[in-house]
Amino acid sequence: MRRFSWFNATSLTLGFAFLYLPMLILVIYSFNESQLVTVWAGFSTKWYGELMRNEAFLDAAWVTLRVAVISSTIATILGTLAAYVLIRAGRFAGRTLFSGMIYAPLVMPEVITGLSLLLLFIGIGLDRGIVTIILAHTTFAMCYVSVVVSSRLVSFDRSLEEAALDLGCTPFEAFRLVTLPIIAPAVISGWLLAFTLSLDDLVIASFTAGPSATTLPIKIFSAVRLGVSPEINALSTIMIGIVTVGVITFSLISKSQAVRREAEERAAERPA
Fold it and tell me: Would you write out the chain's pLDDT as a tens digit for each of its 272 residues?
């Protein structure tokens, strides 16, 4: 086993500092008394109170949350169905075109995607708002779900489905009772990925959002162009806290499930 050298330790420290030190500074200055974000004037939580009274940020956050939940749910359903067709349908006419259309948003610049969707919505006479943002986010998020679910379906043991069919299940019942529970971790991962992409999107949303619907990234970007305010630091700190709690919770759940599975396998291997 190779020893952990000073070079490795220094590189790791600098890498983590580059990634997380700006976040730490942002969190610290969110509790700054001064309105100047670069001048420390004492500890205070007043900017969190100001943020809770800022209707513009609250409305944008509510729009972003609704769009993320709805678009990620639709993208998960469509992406899972697309992955199932690609992996299980075998060869069919138009399969290459179908797979290319599914995976195109992965390599398509977001500016091109946003502009093309904008022209589409204008062409069909659809007013820009929450609906257009949901459609846009569903379009580019479903391909990520399809990739995640496809990777799980490739390694799926089809003999389990065949056994269910032999026992009298219909194809739909076999999918619902056997396939879906097994690929559920991949489906959930795809939903979380789509949810995160929707929360983070700025470029596509800026093309498809209208005056009646502004997402939080657009609102933050517009506010930062006029100067960083302590309220933005407070909002960013809340988002960092939510993500941190979610990651830790998911890690603990995954670890407990792995420990439980390992205990069940040991119990199954133990002689009676």
Answer: 466 678 788 888 888 888 888 888 888 888 888 877 777 778 888 888 888 888 888 888 889 999 999 999 999 999 999 888 888 777 777 778 888 888 888 888 889 988 999 999 999 988 888 999 999 999 989 999 998 998 888 887 788 888 888 888 888 888 888 888 888 888 988 898 899 889 888 899 989 988 878 888 888 888 887 777 788 888 888 888 888 887 788 778 878 877 887 777 777 776 65
Closest CA to 143 of 91, 72, 65, 95: 72
Residue 214 CB partners (closer than 8 Å, separation 6+):
59, 60, 63
Name the residue with tokens 């800026």. 206
- Tell me the C-alpha distance between 241 and 52, whole Å: 16
- Reference 218, options 231, 239, 202; nearest CA is 202
DSSP helix/strand/coil, 43: strand
Distance CA 247, CA 189 (A): 12
Q: What is the pTM of this model?
A: 0.81
Residues 6+ apart with CB under 8 A from 88: 153
Of 76, 35, 24, give the one whose Cα is nearest residue 241. 24
What are the Cα distances from residue 2, in Å, to 9, 15, 26, 166? 13, 21, 37, 53
* Tokens read off for 65: 């949350």
Token readout for 1 is 């086993």
Q: What amino acid occupies position 120?
A: L
Burial class (CB in 10 A: 0-12, 13-18, 19+), 266: exposed
End-to-end CA distance of the chain: 39
Q: Which residues of 17-26 are buried (b: 16+ CB within 10 A; e: fewer)?
A: eeeeeeeeeb
CA distance 114 to 217: 15
